[in-house]
Structures are given as C-alpha cells and as structure tokens.
Amino acid sequence: MASTLRIDSFHEINIVERGELAADLAVGATALTLRSTQGFLTGQTLYVGILAREGVEKAVIASVPDETTINLTQPIKLPHGRYEAVTAVLGDQIHIYRAVNVDDSIPADDSFTVLATREIDPDQQSTYFTDSAGSSAYWYRFTYFNATTMAETPLTALDPVRGQDFPHYASIGDIRQVAGLQNAVNLADRSVELWRGVAEAEINSALAGSYAVPFNPAPAIVKSLTLELAAALLLVDAFGQSAYGKRLADARARLMEYRDKTATVTDENGQPISTSNSITGWPDDSAPRSFYIGQVF
C-alpha cells in the first residue's frame, strides 16, 4: 500500500516577505530592481513571478545593496515583466515527518522523524510525495526547510494528516476541471481536497449498504460520482446555493440512484460489482420484507 501526500507549495507560514519588480528583468540578469527591498535579507530564497504559475523561478539573494536593488547568486533564466511578484520564503524544501499510529490519536511530537525531503514545485499549488509503505498505520507532519541556513518552520505549525488505506476516487486537478476552476489560482488545493473528502465520505456512506466500501480501486462510475459531487460542493461553497444548488441536488440524486439500486455500479468491463454482505431481502429484492429497521418487538 502507498499514501500520496499533498503539501501546499506556498503556505503562508513559509512566506517571509512580498515585493514587486519595478523594472523589466531580462534573461541573464543578476540584479532585481524592486519598488522596495524592505524585509529582504541576504541568503534568503525568493521566487520571481506569480507563485504556482508557469514562469515562476527560484533565486537566492547574494546582497541587498540599497532600498530598491537585490543582487542574486545566479543569473535569471527567464524574462520577467515590471510589476511581477517577488516572494521571499523561509525554505525551498519540505521535510516530511512520519510517526507510527498507536491509538488513533495524533502521536506525540517527539514520535515524528524525518522520512524524506522534497524540493518545492514552484509552478504548482501543491507539492506531492508518495510514501510507498504508507497507510493508516502512520501519521505525517510537514515543515518548510532551508538546507543552506538550516532554518525550519515549527513542526506543529501545520496540522498532521493520517495515511490512507485506499486511493482517492478522483484527482484534485480533475475536480478543478469539472468545476471550471482549473485556472482559479487563488483557490488553494487544500480547499478542493476538503470537498473531495466530503464527497468521498458521502459516497461511501450512501453505498455502504449495497457495496463494499471504500472502493479500491474506484470504478469509473464512482470516479464520475466523486467528480460531480465534489465539484458541486466546491461551487456551492464558493458561489452560493442559489447559483449552484441545483447542480448539487442533481449530483446527490444520481448518487441516490446507485444507493437505491435503480442504477448499478459496474467495473471497467461493464459487469456489476459484487455487493456488500448486507441483507436487503429474501429470496430476492422483490420479495416482501419480514421486518424493517426501527421496528420493535
């Protein structure tokens, strides 16, 4: 089993200063002209360009000679225009810590040890790491780290996450696309991840009486249900019930069809997936039930 972990590439706890270019920057330039260099320090890692977008690049400050100039340790590789963002961070790497699950509660801080170090993906909202041995038997914490200065954010600054024993039913990128929000750079991946989790939990709860959940792997129908439901939940949260309430209702109505067995979950070959061990009727579903949930004898 493996657990794929998603970490914000540019969480606020890692950002130490923000600035803006005051002049165009050509390829090969070794100095930046900013509107103000206040807060920028020698040795800091910075990113030139819009964070989590194509074209952003990493640089390191060699010196700050005056209130508008930053000298770099290496030449710039890409052109940048006036007014583009310049962002200084504490660390350009992420430490992934892991601890063994003992009693289903968050382990003590001193139980976590560094599992791996991952370079931040500057042109992506999230940086991913896959623990090939991961599962619900482990908890994870993340810090931002600078290997040159040895600076590191506090271990407890970000919430811990627990590994999973099944893969997600849909990717964050696919949910964004179905929702029409693939270019919404101000929408954090963690927000999409939140509603994906809600959608998966709702699907598992609805189908638990008829199928063995969680699905592993998830059939195409379950992936489609997850995309529809998560996208609708995300849109309602962002724009309100009046704008996208019908889309959410339609997604839930489709889910109820599979719960009530008016539609059947099938595998990639179109064959019905074996159901759970729940008893729905005898000798078949068309026969009258001998008793119902809630009856008292």
Describe the structure.
With about 300 residues, the chain is an alpha+beta fold. The protein folds into 2 domains: about 1-165, no CATH class; about 165-295. The protein is built from 4 helices and 12 strands, in the order ββββββββββββαααα. It has helices spanning about 170-180, 190-205, 220-240, 240-260; strands at about 5-10, 15-20, 30-35, 45-50, 55-65, 70, 85-90, 95-100, 115-120, 125-130, 140-145, 160. The strands form 3 sheets. Strands 2-7-4-5-6-3 form a 6-stranded antiparallel beta sheet, with no helix packed on it. Strands 9-8-11-12 form a 4-stranded antiparallel beta sheet, with no helix packed on it. A hairpin with an 8-residue loop joins strand 4 (about 45-50) and strand 5 (about 55-65). The radius of gyration is 25 Å and the shape is globular. The two termini are about 45 Å apart. The relative contact order is 0.12.
